[in-house]
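User: Second chain of the day. Same drill as before.
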Amino acid sequence: MIKKLIYKKIWTEIKKAKNILLTLHPSPDGDSIGSNLALYHILTKMGKKVTLLGGDSEFPNRFLSMPGSGKIVPRNFFKINPEDYDLFIIADISNEKQISKQGNIVIPKTLKTIVIDHHASNLKFADINLIDKNAPATCQLVYDFLESEKINFSKSIAICLFIGLYTDTGGFKYFNTNYKTFLSAANLTKIYPDFNKIIFEIENNDQPDRLKFLSLMLGSISTHISGKVAIASIDFKTIEKNNISNNVVNGSDIANYVKSVVGWEIGISMIEAQPNLIKISFRTRDYNKYDLTKISTSLGGGGHKTAAGVTLNDISLPKAKDLVIATICQVYPKIDKI
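Assistant: Same format as last time:
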């Protein structure tokens, strides 16, 4: 009942709006891209004027096959005038800092805001908040929301939502995947039966420098806290020396490789993307033992129980590593005995 009331409020605001703003979050993943592109397709079909911002980061090459990717405007929130819009739908974003990390976000009071998200760390910062931490992806929430109005999904909407579901569940492997996920996926793939071709494009779109980056990161792994925590790291000088592109740095999920090793309970990647700016990703093998949101939020980040992240500013890579290890020990003081 609560969701239905929220759906009704959202549809009311959408029907009133003329100029609608959407944005990808920094270092966008399949769920950010899929949910926003699906919204873009349905809103433009409704006759709305829609601007979808690419946000802080370059658009990942591996998602260029997604229908509508060419419509994404390569700007962030600070490169537009928010007063030009009457509705801002913020999908797959847990707090205002995730809209852009290039300054303090100030949303005009005249701009109505709607958040659609599945992160447990969401701060419910919008006028209307559709949040379900048990949903496997924001694309699942968008799917359910569109279904509530009996929307006929176009092929473009279907594949965008499916890719968000597929990528954010790790190919339907993560803990919050359930039978409803598969029912949704089945309906979407019935509409877009060539879904396997898009998956192939996403998963087989490597560049030579990404493989070099992967080898450098995996070669750097160190273990900590009785071998329970493994960290792969790289500094900015090494990235520059090896001519690693920003697209590769922002799009590589190294922490998942690290956590794949038996015994390494928490896998971490730490990337000095700019001098003294450290991007950190956390992954765990066992969400029953470790809730990564407790670690990431202690550092000012967010995410999910099994996958979380944070960006640390004005800190060197060695000091960031020490801080992360100390934070894990603080959150889980008995980790070496678990």
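The chain has two domains: 2-203, 208-337.

User: Great, on to the next one.
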